Amino acid sequence: MQSSRKISQVLGAILFALACVFSVHAQATTGSVRGVVTDQNGAIVPGAKVTLSKKGTGVASTTQTSDTGAFEFTNIQVGEDYSVKVEAANFKTTELTDVRVSLNQATDLPVSLAPGAVSETVTVTAGGTELVDTTTTNLSKAFSSRQVVELAQTTAGPAGSAAGVNNLALLAPGVTSSGGVGVGTGGSVGGQRPRDNNFVLDGVDNNDKAVTGPQSYISPEEVAEFSLLQNQFSAEFGRSNGGNFITVTKSGTNDFHGTFYGFVRNRYLNALDTLQKNAGVTRNKADGDLFMPRSDFFRGGANLGGPVFFPRFGEGGPSLWKLRDKLFFFTSYERLQSGSAAGAAGIVTPTAAGMALLGTIPGLSANNLNVFRTYTPVAPVNNEGTIDVLGRLIPVGDVSFSAPQFYKQNHAVINLDWNQSGATQHHFRFSMTNGADIDNFANLPIFFTPL
Description:
Elements: H1 2-22, E1 30-39, E2 49-54, E3 60-64, E4 70-77, E5 79-87, E6 93-101, E7 106-108, E8 111-113, E9 121-125, E10 139-144, H2 145-150, E11 175-176, E12 188-189, E13 198-201, E14 204-205, E15 223-231, E16 244-249, E17 257-265, H3 274-278, E18 295-307, E19 309-314, E20 317-322, E21 327-350, H4 352-358, H5 366-375, E22 386-389, E23 392-419, E24 425-439, E25 449-450
Parallel strand pairs: 1-7, 1-8, 6-9, 13-16
Antiparallel strand pairs: 1-4, 2-3, 2-5, 5-6, 10-15, 11-12, 13-14, 15-16, 17-18, 18-21, 19-20, 21-23, 22-23, 23-24, 24-25
């Protein structure tokens, strides 16, 4: 037992230090729950005990209603599995289940108590329905983890693009595509250019300072909630005057939960469109160049979240000790790759006759000429006229060849959450993304190299 306490204290110190380091410039990634408690006649009920609990982690916070019957819980993690229990003398206990907490919003819960004994309980299901903010002038739109995974907008865009989850903003009112005007990601919010948008991931600035847009890729499978804040936002979101694209990643719970997923499309599964049919493209490899061109895409991976276990040594031998309601993890890995039909590349080079003429010109470096002949393809026909090399006209022509188009990406996430108490929580977030494609800008096959 003593060793368990020491481990708990050491972990608390480490996570507290990490939280202090990584949260200096953090922005809001939580919501709040508030309400007013009244009786069946509408009279306020002061001094009532109010308990907010999260089913998945068992974390609970308690407060009392004020003289005006009001209560409020702040800095609450987003989710739909909260319950609120209200207890007061001479009233039945009322419990509201499936309470939804949305990012950067206040969940208002008017509670009406019925006369009776405290031992009697009245349960009301909130149902996790979408909230309508009636107390502020903020214009915002939130998407749950299920919506992020199932809506098609999150898979739009090129492979490896960080725009996927942020494309959900196009479903919000007042947001349109940029129409090709200006650089940036996420669409035009309130008529402004996309370059005015601001991106936040788990409370940390996620803006690419070089090209405008999100810096880090976010997999739809790891998102707890995505929210677009469009106007009237507080000073903490004051970096840009466009839309604020705020994403919060998932956390673990007291139970283990995981998914394994994969999305595949390629030339053997894709349907032929009308343009391809009109051009004579078929699925028959015997047709050679008319065989359906390559168009492959794969996104797959797995994630797992749950409580953290530690070894405990006692008289009965080693065992596993779980920090129930205290320490949780969530980890995710995703592989993404795409390949498309080889793009047409071309250059102008000497014909065979031109190459022979180059060897007869005095003053040319023999070494340089040898390198040129080694790596430069010979034009089959003289269709580009001639070029002058030291007074000699060299016939040249077009040369075309295939340039490969391929991309691959690995993405991993590790999240740790330490609930020190109902009033103190620590969150650690790690995200890694690396990618590689083919450098074909040199326009010569010999120089095509992986990046």
